[in-house]
């Protein structure tokens, strides 16, 4: 599968519809513009962005690319919003060297709309100061919560130009609605859907993403993360005081749990447990986390400005000791700049096997 698909759907080609060429001309008439690309799944928006970026580079532009397509990322790794600054032609976004990331921690933004919007806005602000033009790639998520995500991105970023790709069916209506919403805030242009675009199955998308996970985590090494030196975010664990021995015994007896770690914050108990019991418990007072959820969980290492230095995979949480055994491609110098470790919501192996997507409130 992987050898047939490769790890990129969008590659640089000059065999494009005429309206893409006119779009480049339009962009060159703007002063340091920010351009956002919006389209549904397999609409060709990343291919259009790749063409525009390369053509602008041919004209001498320094181009900033903000890749916010969390699940089909070109600029690695997945589950982040990433910024690349390019001055030379590139065949696909995966060839763009990342300059900076913002951690989301999952490959779909449905439950993380706020974080995704903040990540795009922050990276666009950085790109504005470094590039002649900023291009923003987005997910194909345009209905339901995806509609709100695109609307909020437009409101937060206030791009000079929003490029929409034609769609069909229900998504055609969503694109029309988004164009109407964006019109008071930014100039909009509608591109034809390229006849060369082909749909990708769920299995193909998963295989492409698996290849990207493998590429990112190749050459990774295990590190021991001491949580006494780092803040923890993205989870209710480690918040408040540790459980007393008496409290642990009570929870184990009442619920038939093996309590591996626990904390009390105000009136809420967070319990990490192993059990096969399905006894009901008061979810307003107890947040119970199955230990299995932590296995191969994606985590991000965050710097003092809130940007993501890189990712890791949680291999063994030694919770009672305040230690995490994490597999990561980051070296000692990069890790030394981390002030926080943030828990994501996808369980994935270094070989690219996605084990589970968690809900936001699971941890």
From TrEMBL:
Gene Ontology biological-process entries: RNA processing
Keywords, sorted A to Z: ATP-binding, Kinase, Nucleotide-binding, Transferase
Domain Clp1 P-loop: from-to ranges: 39-219
Catalytic function, reaction form: a 5'-end dephospho-ribonucleoside-RNA + ATP = a 5'-end 5'-phospho-ribonucleoside-RNA + ADP + H(+); a 5'-end dephospho-2'-deoxyribonucleoside-DNA + ATP = a 5'-end 5'-phospho-2'-deoxyribonucleoside-DNA + ADP + H(+)
Domain of life according to the entry: Archaea
Pfam families xref list: CLP1_P
Keyword Nucleotide-binding: yes
GO MF entries: ATP binding; ATP-dependent polynucleotide 5'-hydroxyl-kinase activity
Entries under InterPro entries matching the protein: Clp1/Grc3, CLP1_P, P-loop_NTPase
CDD domains assigned to the protein according to its UniProt record, in alphabetical order: SIMIBI
Segments passing through the bilayer: none
Role: Polynucleotide kinase that can phosphorylate the 5'-hydroxyl groups of both single-stranded RNA (ssRNA) and single-stranded DNA (ssDNA). Exhibits a strong preference for ssRNA.
Name of this chain's protein: polynucleotide 5'-hydroxyl-kinase
Organism of provenance: Thermococcus guaymasensis DSM 11113
């Amino acid at each position: 599968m992987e050898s047939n698909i490769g790890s990129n759907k969008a590659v640089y080609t000059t065999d494009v519809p005429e309206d893409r060429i006119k779009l480049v001309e339009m962009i060159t008439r703007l002063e340091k513009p920010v351009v956002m690309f919006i389209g549904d799944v397999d609409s060709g928006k990343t291919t259009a962005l790749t063409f525009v970026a390369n053509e602008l580079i041919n004209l001498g532009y320094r181009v900033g690319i903000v890749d916010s397509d969390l699940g089909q990322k070109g600029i690695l790794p997945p589950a982040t919003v990433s910024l690349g600054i390019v001055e030379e032609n590139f065949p696909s976004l995966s060839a763009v060297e990342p300059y900076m990331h913002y951690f989301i921690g999952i490959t779909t933004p449905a439950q993380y709309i706020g974080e995704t919007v903040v990540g795009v806005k922050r990276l666009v602000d950085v790109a504005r100061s470094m590039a002649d033009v900023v291009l923003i790639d987005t997910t194909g998520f345009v209905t339901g919560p995806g509609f709100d995500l695109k609307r909020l991105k437009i409101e937060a970023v206030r791009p000079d130009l929003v490029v929409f790709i034609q769609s069909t069916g229900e998504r055609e209506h969503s694109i029309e609605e988004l164009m109407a919403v964006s019109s008071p805030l930014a100039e909009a242009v509608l591109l034809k859907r390229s006849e060369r675009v082909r749909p990708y199955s769920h299995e193909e998308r998963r295989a492409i993403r698996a290849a990207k996970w493998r590429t990112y985590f190749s050459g990774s090494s295990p590190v021991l993360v001491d949580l006494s030196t780092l803040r923890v975010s993205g989870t209710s664990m480690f918040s408040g005081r540790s459980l007393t021995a008496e409290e642990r015994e009570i929870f184990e007896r009442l619920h038939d749990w093996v309590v591996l770690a626990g904390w009390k914050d105000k009136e809420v108990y967070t319990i990490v447990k192993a059990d096969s019991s399905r006894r009901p418990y008061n979810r307003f007072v107890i947040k119970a986390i199955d230990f299995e959820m932590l296995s191969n969980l994606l985590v991000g290492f965050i710097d003092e400005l809130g940007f993501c230095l890189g990712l890791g995979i949680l291999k063994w949480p030694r919770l009672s000791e305040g230690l995490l055994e994490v597999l990561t491609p980051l070296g000692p110098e990069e890790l030394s700049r981390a002030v926080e470790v943030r828990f994501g919501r996808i369980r994935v192996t270094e070989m690219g096997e996605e084990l589970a997507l968690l809900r936001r409130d699971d941890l």
